[in-house]
Amino acid sequence: MPNNSIFRQKSISNVLKQSEDSHGSGLVKILGVRDLTSFGIAAIIGAGIFSTIGRASFEGGPAVSLLFVFVSIACIFTALCYAQFASMVPVSGSAYTYAYVSFGEIFAWIIGWALILEYAVSNMVVAISWSEYFVSMLEGFGIHFPDYLTFDYGTAHKAFLANQDGKAVGGDLAAAQAYEHAPIIAGIKFLIDLPAGVITMLVTSLVYIGIKESRTASNFLVVLKLVVIFLVISVGAFYVKPENWSPFAPNGAKGVLGGVASVFFAFIGFDSISTTAEECKNPQRDLPRAMIYCLVICAVLYVCITLVLTGMVNYTELKVDDPLAYVFQKINLDFMAGVISVSAVVAITSALLVYQMGQPRIWMSMSRDGLLWKKFSDIHPKYKTPSFATIITGIVVAVPSLFLDMGFFVDLTSVGTFFAFILVCGGVLYLDYKGMSKDAKFKIPYLNGQYLVGGLLIIALAYSVSQGFFFSEISDKPLLVVFWLVWGALAVMAFKFKFSMLPVLGILTNLYLMTELGITNWTIFIIWLAIGLVIYFSYGYKHSKLSK
């Protein structure tokens, strides 16, 4: 590819050499498969299980447990593709680096830019969730934190208006009271989520100090988190009322799939494992194992916890940001609610820690390639961490988490992630076709999709038309047209090139989930993408190391 093309690609040998050249003042290799699995669990079982699972259950009822199964299957297809890439290109950068090798610079930039949004937004959700549990924990000890320092203005104002109309439910009542009691400064109610901002800066300080300290803290916090979850499942199971599972899907498939953003947000953490590749002792062996281990463990735990939650109380009561503590308070097990609140404060910190580690390493990789300013690739001489990038990450996450709503952030996090996952799955197909993955230390099990992809397309289309919802679905969700066209194109290419089935399934499941996202997700992503392209063409394109 000409060096003036936006599709110029990095060779795998070039990526590996660049990584080796940077190790003189670079990162320290100390992570094993247990540490990586722990990081994955830390990221996946974070705010998702302690917080957003409540909102998803409120929308979809008990059937959200099936959505967790569906999303986890989609993630396993994707994780296998990540694992193959990680065994071939064991460097920091995650999907950004993989896209650079397979599709070229412009796609790498888009993915890197999307991942910046994903990690920042994910951590804002985690920080806000941490704040909810922290305040709940203090209440358990009889300490009242001022309401107006625990809610953002938008959430409190919306809850106040709902309460005026008699429509406030669950956590909205507390937010409405916070709005009423908030002091007025310059004619405006003063409300900020102070604990969310403070914990972000504290965790950023730990990540700045070093990977070894971060690893030790993460391993301890994950063990604690798993103990609490097993306790919740085993105790909660005795209080399940089967009648709460009826109706199983009160709002139908639309209600269940409406929780896609919340549920998928819970699983994107496995991507963060690949950002630590250069700090692994044996990345080509350990990264693939860790990704698969953590996904299987987390999928089982999510399904169990969803069934227990929706069995203990009616799904309509779960529109709260601390659902695990809430359900035990409802059945007067205040001791358990207290244990969960204390544990969640500690355990959610581990998710915050892993995301704060991942974000700077993506910036570092983009900076090394010349696409971002050189300062982002600075490695601290003593702590061996990307110092400047870590500080900027702390500021970018802490400031918005003080002022903005969790629901707003959950809506932002998924489009770019789905896009990254689709490109990683497509990248594996491309490298297999080019014969570049023959020496990979880990390869996705090959299942010939030559006839299967087209056969499944015919069956899916026939079923959709026969049931009468093919045209109605497309009118409701125009993006489904893209889904069916992509499936058709993949069927043709699979027949011609004998594509492996699993990466194709990864592309299709992620693309279908993309069609379920709302207009807000797409609007914000397109605006973010436009900003990113302006930066790329004004700076990255000219300073790219491939252009020289």
From TrEMBL:
GO terms for cellular component: membrane. This is Amino acid transporter. It holds the Pfam family AA_permease_C. Coiled coil: none annotated. It comes from Arcicella aurantiaca. Its main location: membrane. Residues 501-544 form the Cationic amino acid transporter C-terminal domain. It comes from the Bacteria. GO terms for molecular function: amino acid transmembrane transporter activity.
